[in-house]
């Protein structure tokens, strides 16, 4: 069995929810009423003009009567409908006691077209069952529709259902529906024609007579669906009984044959009260499809939302009598009650029911963070339920997921997408989409080029954003914190890949800041906290909160109490740079040149520039190509200098997303800014004027630059060389400082320490002296 029935959930969510019931034969092949799993089906909409049965589409076994039996003598293509000739044989059957067997032949063109369909249209053979079950469901739908004006069609009082029986030993599958069936003329006019739909004629007649109703939007590609049976079958037999006829007819065709036969059913044991029985005699290599477990799996995968009960046969390897879970009459009664259940509005569906549907459909064990159930109408009509998972399973670089399940009129089509229905950055969203406007044989090319799919994608993306925004506005802040931890990187990727949705993505972003290092804040919160004189949104990129907090770039902004966003994730700055602005406020990187804080004093700046112009040129000459230029800084207060990047360059290593090669390109574009108020810079200004060639002054410039590299987030080109400079200056500064208090300690002349170019030797000397004191 496929599992236990969940009628309570099904009744709550379904506009005709799917139910698959298993027929379990014992040693004498008896009927069992145990139910397969039925997922709740919220993808429904009210159909006021129809009786309260469960709903689905058109049928492979349905076709209106054609009054004109004359057909063209060649293959015609009219309005995308292919019509083949059929030549009726006048030869009677050898046994005159049986009804005559009439032979019909396809034209050569039609035979080749059928071969193309069987061998090229479908890449996956198992879709044959999806097509045939869909057609059977359509036959039931058509009967139900016609019964509104012709109630006598239901006079046989046979339940509306689909039954699938298998014979794995002989490789036979039998699919029986109790739908509208076909008359002999309908068999002649429909089953011999590729992509020539009786239902299409039926709809055309309804449209012309202005009698079309809400449930008349049925599939119009009957021929293609029916001939999918030959994907796995050598021979196909269709036995059908229309309530409009007293006789039952049998259509029979073979794979690769140029003809087929139609005869009247003469065996009383094979007569049907109404509907169609399709018997597939499987090819040798495809007999595995006749295993009951295989059939049940395919039904569950492709047809779980079909609106009518689907019964399957299942073997029981037991020698004792099988216990029946429910009385067969009770099972039929339950099915009848379900079919009469009122279609429910999404507002009437509880959160628990949505959660149950989500967990069973996507094999999840945690409730989703949010769900969105909606129907879109107008240019394109489809229904969908979307969910935001509680945890992340897929990596951000995984473009292919199975998170979106596409159905066409409640028949499963595919869950293998590569950005056709959702962009890559929203690939974590899970959901079910049911469209009435797509064909059953949806190919990757159709998904990529279809205007319908593009419209669906646009609306699905908007609904996904509305759902995520709802989480962010929830009173339970932990929900959005959980969402951001799992899927924040996805939204940052969206800033790069989807410019058209920047306005929807930006309010969902979260960052740390100089005024909020413990809790993430939104851009809305930042803008709300801006100072009246503040014009821009300031940010700095760093590899950690500690680095960002202590960066020299912040000194002046912190003094003015301007909040600065801390971008500590490698993707943060990429996202911000793509957004460019938010609510008419530009994003400004405080680590780049020409930072304007809105308080410039042009006269004072002019005086300082005149005083330090010679010093800036002197420092630039010493540093050479390491920097683009040397400027006076307006952003520093306590630091003597800082390295900033050009307007269109990067500075932080984190800003390059780990691409070290890009640093080489930007190295010569850095700007060395000096703080004219700092004592070290004032001393160097004097040295520039009095002793520009002094080795100590030049070494001080080198050390300032290397120190600025570190404080600005870079690693010096030669860390060992920098260490040597630091040791050298320490030796100069400390030499002899404690000697007067310890005359017994051997004195090392200052010039030896200062002149040493080997930091390891100097360090060894210090250690030796310390050891000598012990």
TrEMBL record:
Biased composition (Low complexity): 1-16
Gene3D superfamilies reported in the protein's UniProt record: 3.30.230.80, 3.40.50.11260, Heat shock protein 90, C-terminal domain, Histidine kinase-like ATPase, C-terminal domain
Keyword tags: ATP-binding, Chaperone, Nucleotide-binding, Stress response, Transit peptide
Region of interest called Disordered, as start-end residue ranges on this chain: 1-46, 744-774
GO molecular function: ATP binding; ATP hydrolysis activity; ATP-dependent protein folding chaperone; unfolded protein binding
Chain ranges of the Histidine kinase/HSP90-like ATPase domain: 124-286
Segments crossing the lipid bilayer: none
Gene Ontology CC terms: cytoplasm
Record bears the keyword Lipoprotein: no
Residues given in the record as ATP binding sites: 131, 135, 177, 182, 197-198, 221-226, 276, 444
InterPro entries reported for this sequence: HATPase_C_sf, HATPase_dom, Heat_shock_protein_90_CS, HSP90_C, Hsp90_fam, Hsp90_N, Ribosomal_Su5_D2-typ_SF
Pfam families found in the cross-reference section: HATPase_c_3, HSP90
Annotated NCBIfam families: PRK05218.1
Assigned protein family: Belongs to the heat shock protein 90 family.
Name the record gives this protein: Heat shock protein 90-6, mitochondrial
Species classification: Eukaryota, Viridiplantae, Streptophyta, Embryophyta, Tracheophyta
């Amino acid at each position: 069995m496929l599992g236990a029935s969940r009628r309570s959930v099904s009744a709550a969510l379904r506009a005709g929810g799917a139910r698959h019931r298993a027929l379990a034969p014992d040693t004498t092949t008896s009927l069992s009423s145990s139910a397969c799993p039925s997922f709740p089906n919220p993808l429904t909409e009210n159909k006021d003009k129809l009786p309260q049965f469960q709903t689905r589409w058109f049928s492979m076994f349905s076709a209106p009567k054609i009054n004109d039996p004359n057909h063209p003598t060649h293959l015609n293509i009219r309005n995308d409908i292919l019509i083949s000739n059929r030549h009726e044989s006048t030869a009677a059957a050898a046994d005159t006691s049986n009804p005559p067997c009439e032979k019909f032949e396809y034209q050569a063109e039609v035979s080749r077209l059928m071969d193309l369909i069987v061998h090229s249209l479908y890449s996956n053979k198992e879709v044959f069952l999806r097509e045939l079950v869909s057609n059977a469901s359509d036959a039931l739908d058509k009967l139900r529709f016609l019964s509104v004006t012709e109630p006598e069609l239901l006079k046989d009082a046979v339940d509306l259902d689909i039954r699938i029986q298998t014979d794995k030993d002989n490789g036979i599958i039998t699919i029986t529906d109790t739908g509208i069936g076909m008359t002999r003329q309908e068999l002649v006019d429909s089953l011999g024609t590729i992509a020539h739909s009786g239902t299409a004629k039926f709809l055309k007649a309804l449209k012309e007579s202005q009698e079309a109703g809400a449930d008349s939007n049925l599939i119009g590609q009957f021929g293609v669906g029916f001939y999918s049976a030959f994907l796995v079958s050598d021979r196909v037999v269709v036995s059908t009984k229309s309530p409009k006829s007293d006789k039952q007819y049998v259509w029979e065709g073979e794979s690769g044959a140029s003809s087929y036969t139609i005869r009247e059913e003469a065996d009383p044991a094979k007569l049907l009260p109404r509907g169609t029985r399709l018997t597939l005699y499987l090819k040798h290599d495809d007999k595995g499809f006749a295993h009951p477990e295989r059939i049940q799996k395919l039904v569950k995968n492709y047809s779980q939302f079909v609106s009518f009960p689907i019964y399957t046969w299942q073997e029981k390897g037991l020698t004792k009598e099988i216990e029946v879970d429910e009385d067969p009459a009770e099972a039929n009664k339950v099915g009848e009650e379900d079919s009469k259940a009122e279609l429910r509005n999404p507002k009437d569906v509880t959160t628990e029911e949505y959660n149950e549907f989500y967990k069973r459909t996507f094999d999840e064990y945690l409730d989703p963070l949010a769900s969105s159930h909606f129907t879109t109408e107008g240019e394109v009509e489809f229904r969908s339920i979307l969910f935001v998972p509680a945890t992340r399973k897929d990596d951000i670089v995984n473009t292919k997921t199975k998170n979106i399940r596409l159905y066409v009129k409640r028949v499963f089509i595919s869950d293998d997408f590569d950005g056709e229905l959702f962009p890559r950055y929203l690939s974590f969203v899970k959901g079910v989409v049911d469209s009435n406007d797509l064909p059953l044989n949806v190919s990757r090319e159709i998904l990529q080029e279809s205007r319908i799919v593009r419209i669906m994608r646009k609306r699905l993306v908007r609904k996904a954003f509305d759902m995520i925004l709802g989480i962010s506005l929830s009173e339970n802040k932990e929900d959005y914190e959980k969402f951001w931890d799992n899927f924040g990187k996805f939204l940052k990727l969206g800033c790069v890949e989807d410019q058209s949705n920047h306005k929807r993505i930006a309010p969902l972003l979260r960052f740390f800041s100089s005024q909020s290092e413990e809790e993430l804040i939104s851009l809305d919160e930042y803008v709300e906290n801006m100072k009246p004189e503040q014009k821009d949104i300031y940010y700095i990129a760093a590899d950690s909160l500690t680095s960002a907090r202590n960066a020299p770039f912040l000194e002046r902004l912190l003094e003015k109490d301007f909040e600065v966003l801390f971008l500590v994730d490698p993707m943060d700055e990429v996202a911000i740079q793509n957004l460019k602005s938010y609510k008419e406020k530009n994003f400004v990187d405080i680590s780049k040149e020409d930072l304007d804080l809105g308080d410039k004093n042009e006269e004072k700046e002019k005086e300082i520039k005149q005083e330090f112009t010679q010093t800036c040129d002197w420092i630039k000459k010493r540093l050479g190509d390491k920097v683009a230029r040397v400027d006076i800084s307006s952003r520093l207060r306590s630091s003597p200098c800082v390295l900033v990047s050009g307007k269109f360059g990067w500075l932080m290593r984190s800003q390059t997303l780990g691409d070290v090669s890009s640093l080489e390109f930007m190295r010569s574009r850095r700007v060395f800014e000096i703080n004219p108020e700092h004592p070290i810079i004032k001393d160097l200004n004097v040295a520039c004027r009095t002793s520009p060639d002094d080795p100590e002054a030049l070494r001080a410039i080198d050390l300032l630059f290397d120190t600025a590299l570190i404080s600005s987030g870079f690693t010096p080109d030669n860390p060992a060389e920098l260490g040597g400079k630091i040791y050298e200056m320490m030796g100069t500064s400390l030499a002899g400082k404690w000697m007067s208090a310890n005359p017994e300690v051997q004195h090392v002349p200052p010039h030896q320490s200062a002149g040493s170019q080997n930091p390891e030797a100097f360090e060894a000397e210090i250690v030796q002296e310390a050891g000598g004191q012990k």
